[in-house]
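Box 3.1 A note on notation
Throughout this textbook, protein chains are presented in two layers. The first layer is the amino acid sequence; the second is a token string describing backbone geometry. Keep the layers aligned when reading.
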Amino acid sequence: MNTETVSLNLLKATLELQLRVHRLVQESGQQWLENATHAGNEGIAEASAEIEGLLDAETWQELATLPVQAFWRQLQLRVGDTRALTQVVVNNQMAFIQGLQQAIQHWQKSASEAVGQDALLPLPDTLKQWGAAWSAKQEKDSSSKTGGRDGG
């Protein structure tokens, strides 16, 4: 291989890595948009239910109990939403880490082929280690918060 071919192949491998990372960021953004849309639709449905409750109230007593009922319903929904959001965050982060790890491994393979070496030293599995540590911390935080709510 001549120097020009090696340079071209290395540039192509690096550009491919950049494009793969860009796609991962776009996919992650799309997931967040879908989750926000879902939450917005739920909010609209909740507001519609409250309007219906208001319109269905036929006595002053029924009307007076609506704010209390709405408060408890909203509180229960927000606790559930928080738990669901935490799970979405963990899943999205882990998918991003796995995709990034695959993109880097593919880049390393392409780069080693470009320079004509069949076996470069493997990159440290730093992303996997970071992801495992992040996931373990999230699980620990989640279980301690859940345990605190259930026990108190």
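The chain has one domain: 3-151. Confidence is low (pLDDT under 50) at residues 148-152.
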